[in-house]
Amino acid sequence: MSRSEFLRALESELGLPAQSLKQNQELAAIESWDSMAAVQFIALADEKIGINISGDQIANAKTIDELLSLCGDRLNA
Amino acid sequence: MKAFLTAIRTALPQAILDNNQLAAEYEGWSAEKIYSKTGIRTRHIAAPDECASDLAVRAAQSLMAHVDMDPSNVDYLLYCTQTPDYILPTTACVLQHRLGLPLCCGALDFNLGCSGYVYGLGLAKALIETGQARTLLLITADTYSKLINPADKSVRTLFGDGAAATLIVAAEEESLTGPFVYGTDGAGAKNLIVPSGGMRQAAVPEAQLVPDDSGNARTVNDLYMNGAEVFNFTLRMVPEAVRQLLAKAGIESQAIDLFVFHQANRFMLDHLRRKLQIPADKFVIAMEQVGNTVSSSIPIALQQAQEQGQLKPGALVMLVGFGVGYSWGATLIRWAPTSS
């Protein structure tokens, strides 16, 4: 799965318009990025990529790009 | 002798906290949004002077009336709670007196949350099969609402108060077939905790309200839950516990008639159901009206599933409790109540 495919899935999960999430976007600037969104991200990573991401890892991510990097090499550029 | 589950009865406080009230208090959250995120519309909240043990008494009395049994027949009481009346004495001892159980009755509290019902069934099975008890009352009850700060919407939207009483008797026919799978990971203790009020740290008078990054606030005397970490834990451990239980029982998932998981939150349950490829009609969701009732969530779900016809006599049911501790447990029961 590519990074952009994963982003589209994340947008859908969070109820955001398609293409609205940009890789260099700061998480703090995204209105719908709350503790529930973090849980939804964990669920998506589990479902789409089969990896286990912790809340602490997410808490340390500041941008969308850093968030996607948590998925490691399972996500193509 | 074998352990037979005769009946379950539940008790909920009268006062209700619904999504409209929460939406009025929390900016940017509509009642529908709360429902879509949690699967919960109402939670029952204990009155200021109403303890978990009061709910326990109501559930137990309702149960004994339902099966037309005199309290003097009970010879063992297991009480699962994390909101006891006192640090000491044991609340189960107080319950013995309030319920009119005989002096020869054994009684003890055990402190577990979401995994408590499965552990309670395991203890009941052991006590009955070893001849230590013949007529056992397993009661789960909690008032988590009293531990939650009103400024913490993350947990306030999720937890509800409630109690359930289960009668388990020695019989020829077996309900608690087992097997049982248990698990514990204390590394997760800090992720669902009331930091003060125990021996480790005394409750702090006029404790400071500390906001977090999500706009919630609590003091050190209040319940804290790291939702993301707890969710991460359930994704790792619940499928593994289910797999271990099926392997131990020597059966496939298709052989199970009904799955009743601890009703933590709707999003998590839906995700687990899909991940485990369980058909929707075999998976119980029973939290809309009561929220997360901790150790009572599984018996409340069983009772609701039976009332709605999803749980039928003879059904092979998988119960999986998981959460605070971290602690988890899974077991199989054969549902065959004497009367519905």
Describe the structure.
The complex is a heterodimer of chains A (77) and B (340). Chain A is mainly alpha-helical and 77 residues long. Chain A has 4 helices and no strands. Chain B has 2 domains: 2-171, Thiolase/Chalcone synthase (Peroxisomal Thiolase, Chain A, domain 1, 3-Layer(aba) Sandwich), CATH 3.40.47; 180-335, 3-Layer(aba) Sandwich (Peroxisomal Thiolase, Chain A, domain 1). A 5-stranded mixed β-sheet of chain B has the order 1-7-6-4-5, with helices on both faces. A 4-stranded mixed β-sheet of chain B has the order 8-15-14-13, with helices on both faces. In chain B, strands 2-3 form a two-stranded antiparallel sheet. In chain B, helix 1 packs across helix 2 and helix 3 crosses helix 4 (91-99). The radius of gyration of chain B is 19 Å and the shape is globular. Chain B starts with a strand and ends in a 5-residue tail after the last strand. The interface between A and B is medium-sized, with 17 and 19 residues.
Keywords:
heterodimer; A: 77 residues; mainly alpha; Non-ribosomal Peptide Synthetase Peptidyl Carrier Protein, Chain A; globular; B: alpha+beta; Peroxisomal Thiolase, Chain A, domain 1; five-stranded mixed sheet; four-stranded mixed sheet; 15 strands; 30% helix
At a glance:
The complex is a heterodimer of chains A (77) and B (340). Chain A is mostly helical and 77 residues long. Chain A has four helices and no strands.
Q: How far is the N terminus from the C terminus of chain A?
A: 9 Å
Question: What is the CATH topology of chain A?
Answer: Non-ribosomal Peptide Synthetase Peptidyl Carrier Protein, Chain A
How many β-strand stretches of chain A? 0
The major β-sheet of chain A equals: none
Structural class of chain A, by secondary structure, is mainly alpha
Give helix and strand order of chain B, one letter per element, not per position.
Answer: EEHHEHEHEHEHEEEEEEHEHHEE
Task: Give the overall form of chain B.
Answer: globular
What's the SSE pattern of chain A? HHHH
Mean of all residue-level pLDDT scores of chain B: 96
CATH topology term of the largest domain in chain B = Peroxisomal Thiolase, Chain A, domain 1
Q: How much helicity do the residues of chain B have?
A: 25-40%
Biggest sheet of chain B, open or closed, and with what strands and sense? 5 strands, mixed
**CA radius of gyration of chain A:** 11 Å
Q: List low-confidence stretches of chain B.
A: none
CATH class of chain A: Mainly Alpha
Number of helices of chain A: 4
What average pLDDT do the residues of chain A reach? 88
DSSP strand content of chain B = 15-25%
CATH superfamily descriptor of chain A: ACP-like
